[in-house]
Amino acid sequence: MTTLQTISQLANQCVLCGICIPHCPTYHIFKSENESPRGRIALFKALAENKITTSQALLSSLDHCLGCRACERVCPSQVNYAQLSHLGRALIASELQSLKQPLSKKLVETLLPSPQLRPWLKLASKSLQPFVMSNHKKAKGNSQKSSNQVTSKKVASKNKQKNVLLFHGCTSELFEYGIIDDIKQLINACGINVITPKKHSCCGAISLRKGDMNKARTQINDNIKQLVNLDDKDLSIIAINNVCSAQLSDYQQFSDIPNAKKFADKIMDAIHFLVVLLKEHPLQFSPMQESIGVGVHISCSLKNALKEELLLFELLENIPKIKLDKINDRFCCGAAGSYRLQYPEIANQLLDIKLDDSKAKQHKLIVSSNFGCSMHFKKGLQRQNIQKVEVLHPISLLARQLIF
Ligand code: SF4
Ligand code: SF4
């Protein structure tokens, strides 16, 4: 089947019921059918069947989609909107390229997934690191001991039977300082060794959003070939960023790529992995200060793609006296990869729904398991001049409270 036929076939599953429409953030903002899932599906179908010609307005409506997959979660006909949108974006990629895009979008999309450029970005980000790290260490010092008291080697010697491979993503080292140490610390404390590959390719999410199917397929192939011995039944691959977990799990859709399904079957989001692990190997955590209300941001990849939002609460409830409170999750926060740079007005409008809710509930700490959302929240807090609110990955919060 050709790509055009696949687009038509996927789109034909839509029964036009409109149930998805109130769940779509762009419809909420624009109140236009073209900015809704049903409208976009019809546009992709008409484009694939050559029934309409493209225009900047039409391409903008399609490009405004955040890829949040809220429509997919509620669709009674189970339309695979993500797959349809990836194929549709590949179809229109050449036309989008000819449109003027903000430099910031081009930079993010070009630089982040590039293994060659990542060391340079890392070096640049390190110039900011002392400031951020001092806060991170200060916070850790509150609770217990420094992470190097549990070395990978020491703990691995307790139990050498099980390893996990950590897919850290393109942005973890750049924007979430300490997250890799934090997850290793928790997993090592349960007697499991963490293998961190020196490098891996981007999971492909950014290329797919850009409509660059060839590049995405190369990245998928590289990860499948390089990362893991697929015959090692005991080895799982865990991803720290929800977006990567969702995308790596979706490799099974690329059925023509050898071993794609076998690889996808090994993927587990880090939140899920830790929930299971801590049941088998309970650890001690120090209680939260009662005055700290923790706002839980549910990322779209966790809620709509992985459908594992409850696991985030279950994981954090390992911390005694923690008061968890879900931040308004009606819509996507607007981060959506490079979307917040490409369409800052839409992105900020969506974020403000969440910030207003968090402000009203007086959260002092916001946890988010998606790096892009965390960055968007940090910027939003600055923009609104909201001070003394910390944004943290849930795994870093757990590591901070860990008692040895
Ligand atoms: S809910 Fe599903 S079937 Fe109904 S309009 Fe939306 S995409 Fe189409
Ligand atoms: S993925 Fe999100 S933004 Fe895009 S059409 Fe679906 S609900 Fe709307």
Strand content: 5-15%
Which ligands occur here? iron/sulfur cluster
Arithmetic mean of pLDDT:
83
Multimeric organization = single chain
Largest sheet geometry: 4 strands, parallel
Radius of gyration: 21 Å
Provide the structure class: alpha/beta
Count of the separate structural domains: 3
Strand tally is 10
CA(first)-CA(last) distance: 57 Å
Overall, the morphology is globular
| Uncertain residue segments | 99-104, 106-161
**Numbering strands along the chain, what is their spatial order in the largest sheet?**
2-1-3-4
Considering DSSP H and I runs of 4 or more, what fraction of the residues is helical? 40-55%
Number of helices in the DSSP assignment? 23
